[in-house]
Design brief:
This protein is an all-beta fold. It has one helix and 24 strands.
């Protein structure tokens, strides 16, 4: 049961995966291995499970949350040092070279930057930021910044009457909308997916009241959002299955059917051609990456590792 416990612990942190239409390329994912004492790294692999390559050195703190750029040439990711306010957004080339810090987070100004997601034109990176105000109080929300680190500005403001975060933001393929997860920390209230215009403004809840939801990803045609749902079941501490829903909140459908308390399916992401979905499956025997078609069938296993964990894969496109 160690594999399941590890996967559930990692799944508590969010990440967005924006899928750009195109031909299917490699998967970028978080790698946790006993060689590094299970400290997170970014790695990549083909969707067939070949050509595995580690791209970053181990880094403490939050998971690295890798995200492919729309042209398939770069990867945005999170790097922390383990110190206060040390988590920032970085960008590197697809082969792991030219790693460069994009955001900065002095303790007097913020608590951290997480969950990067590229705009469809590659001109902006959307991310979660815990921003301090002049009194040192946290005013979290989604922010935008250029990949060169300029023109940072706020997009949303999370409610401050509770310890709330806006995280896992992700652009629609046409760039008009952003879906994100609202998390109310230290609460029994469920997380929900929300929709907001890419220019900001009022937010609208997408997922139904009783379904704890996170990890959204738009389909390349913009017709569906895939996400992880956690239905509340008496006597079961944690559940996770993959669902889809239309951006207007209709058509909710469950794709995976792991039995509550025994199996878990989470961190889904669309392939660039829209035909398949990558996701994590964990149970008492296995914790690996799998893919399935958009109906939830034709399941294929990508990784076959023991006591090595590949988490939160983002499916990149072939270089344009």
């Amino acid at each position: 049961m160690v594999v399941v416990v590890f996967a559930l612990a990692v799944s508590a942190s969010g990440s967005a995966r924006a899928t750009t239409p195109g031909a299917n390329g490699p998967l970028a994912f978080e790698l946790f291995s006993p060689v590094t004492d299970f400290t997170g790294q970014v790695a990549r692999i083909s969707p067939h499970g070949t050509n595995r390559r580690v791209l970053t050195v181990p880094a403490p703190g939050e998971p690295p949350q890798p995200e492919w750029s729309p042209d398939g040439r770069r990867i945005a990711f999170v790097r922390c040092t383990g110190e206060e306010s040390s988590c920032n957004i970085w960008v590197m080339r697809r082969n792991g070279t030219h790693q460069r810090q994009v955001t900065h987070c002095a303790p007097q100004w913020c608590f951290g930057n997480l969950s990067p997601a590229w705009s469809p034109d590659g001109r902006w990176i959307l991310f979660e930021r815990d921003q301090r105000n002049g009194s040192g109080e946290n005013r979290p929300g989604l922010f935008l910044i250029r990949p060169d680190g300029t023109l940072m500005h706020r997009l949303t403001r999370a409610p401050i009457d509770r310890d709330t975060s806006h995280t896992e933001g992700q652009y629609s393929p046409d760039g008009r909308w952003i879906v994100f997860t609202q998390v109310i920390h230290e609460s029994e209230l469920p997380n929900h997916l929300f929709i907001v215009s890419s220019t900001g403004g009022s937010v609208q809840r997408l997922t139904p009241p009783g379904l704890d939801s996170d990890s959204p990803d738009w389909s390349p045609d913009g017709q569906w959002i895939v996400f992880t749902g956690h239905p509340r079941i008496p006597g079961v501490d944690f559940t996770a299955n993959v669902y889809v829903i239309h951006p207007d909140g209709t058509g909710l459908r469950r794709l995976t059917h792991s039995k509550a308390g025994e199996g878990f399916d989470f961190f889904p992401g669309w392939s660039p051609n829209g035909a398949r979905i990558v996701f994590n499956h964990a149970d008492a025997q296995v914790d690996d990456l799998f893919t399935m078609n958009r109906r939830g069938t034709a399941i294929r296993r990508v990784t076959h590792t023991d006591n090595v964990f590949e988490i939160r894969a983002d499916w990149g496109a072939v270089i344009r």
